[in-house]
Design goal:
With about 100 residues, this protein is mainly alpha-helical. It has helices at about 25-35, 40-55, 60-75, 80-95. The chain has one domain (about 25-95). Helices cover about 60% and strands about 0% of the residues. The termini are far apart. The mean pLDDT is about 75.
């Protein structure tokens, strides 16, 4: 059996660095594997979903929500897990359909 050859990669690249001590990369790797995707595909899918959610809301932008959650978490508790939790809540709120 021969190994499948991958197509040459095209498109623009983005070098992304994760903060030291952050487990975000590991979490993304685990989620991607569970979903049967590469980490890159998982990240792109999630970015696209967040941008679509922002477009749907027409109001509070994703960036504004992230800044508000970050400021709230940083003012009372700079713990990374708390900040991640706040950001996840903000993303879920953006994904909810408006009535």
């Amino acid at each position: 059996m021969t190994a499948e050859r991958r197509k040459p990669q095209t498109g623009k690249q983005l070098l992304l660095r994760f903060a030291e001590g952050s487990d975000l990369r590991d979490r993304l790797d685990r989620i991607a594997k569970a979903n049967g995707r590469s980490t890159t595909a998982e990240v792109l899918l999630r970015l696209e979903a967040s941008l679509q959610a922002e477009e749907k809301t027409g109001g509070l932008s994703f960036a504004q929500t992230v800044k508000a959650a970050d400021a709230k978490a940083a003012s009372g508790d700079p713990d990374l897990e708390t900040r991640v939790s706040e950001l996840e809540k903000a993303v879920k709120a953006l994904q909810q359909p408006r009535s």
